[in-house]
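Supplementary notes for students who missed Thursday's class. We covered one full example, reproduced here. Read the sequence, then the structure, then the short commentary at the end.
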Amino acid sequence: MEVSIEEHVALEVLGIRIKGSVVTPDVIKKNPSIKFDKHPEQPEGISLLQHVKNLLSRCLAGNKLSQGAPADSDVVDEDLFLTPLIKAGKLKEAREKSEDHMDRFRVQSSIKYDLKSHSGYLTVDEANNANVFFWFFPAQESPQTASVILWANEASGYSCMRAVFLENGPFFLDEKLRLHERNHSWAKTHSMLYIDVPVGAGFSFTDKEEGYAKNKEDEAQELYEALKQFYTIFPEYHKRDLFIAGELLAVQHVPQMVEKIEAENEKNPEFQLNLKGIIFGSPIFDVAKQTSFGQYFYDMNLIEEDQLKTFQMEEDKMHGLIREKKYPEAEKIATSLVVYPRSLYETFTGLTSPYNILQSEEPRELERFSKFIDSRAMHKYLHVGLHNFTLVNFKVHDKFSHETMSYDGKMLENLLNKGKYRILIYSAQFDAVSIHTGVTKAVEELNWNGQEEFLDADRKVWKVGKDVAGYVKKAGVLTYVMVRNSGRYIMMDNPEWGHDLIEIFTSGKDF
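Structure (token representation):
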């Protein structure tokens, strides 16, 4: 095994002896490519470099990680790579090692029971040491029969882990970074699986440039490989109903994931994934039809007529760039309108939250989450060693910008025409980015075999108790819901409604 100078230095610092001698700088200078057998304590299937990193983590954790939450010590456990255990047939060991225990790692929590979850790394490309991080919560009620919901990230390069804390996971954070049980959680009645793909998002990582996905096909391959390994460790969930859910731009990459699952199901009849449905929240699948930001803000009396004209001028520029296939330039305009700090939306309205026009600022929970998940306690709890958490990896995201702005909804139409899966699309009345009027228009103009039936369908009032929660149209496999009095994070604004929405859809009931 060839050992780099970096590894030699690390080994020397740790005083590790290989073949009976300590590596010194002199040895390195004389023979920088010297070869050694693997270290005696090096686990099977783990590279020497990774082993060194794991050992270093025990020395350096106190300096590398944030102080966001208390831990029993400055020591961080080494990364948990489950793929070598899977290959060795040590599935019970993989399962046991992936268990998360709040009490053991002293995560501050008011939750009175040992909330069960599993987490760790699954290697999806060994040649490039590309590893994806997953976090799994078995359903709290009827876990033996509950459906599995795979939560997808809102855009390539974005971590899906914030949904655990801000939306549909079993807990939320208070201002003191203390966990509390969420009263209305998807994880009560569904087993929730969060996987950060593509590599580079969240805790997922690779050592090489070649390890990063370059398109939606690569991303789908990563996800399928991770799912295959996950179901190998947890075979009892393999035959359960599977739903894939996600927000915003998830609608652009989930259909590719579905195609990958279908192709693999055909090739591997003994390993069928039981995909039943797909859920798209506040989706953007037709930029041309869904970017009339100025008109919506004007109709809501947030801007005046001159400001509306400024919005429309920028929107026209963006649409022109899309027609010219100048997608990165078009995306810059789109984000400058409503997303980036000091966006046109913020400049004209004074509002800084793109998630809900009724809120002056972004939810404080966003800042709490980012601080908490990168704390020492959570690194131990989630078995991620020293790998930093990246909420948004722009290096990864930029690789997909051309696909984001050119997406026209054709793959969504193909999904609808297949008629194999139940599809739920929901919009939020006060989302400032995925505007509900734009979503409605784009849904109505989808070219599929149920379009006429959908347009003719009656719009029903959906109630939760005595509250009017939203409005529903349904035809064939498609259900469209406009959720009232909510921003994009429905589970934050109206958690009971958000839970009812998913419970009705996944169970196949009528609204």
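Commentary. The chain has two domains: 5-41, 79-420. Residues 132 and 204 are 4 Å apart (CA to CA). If anything here is unclear, bring it to office hours.
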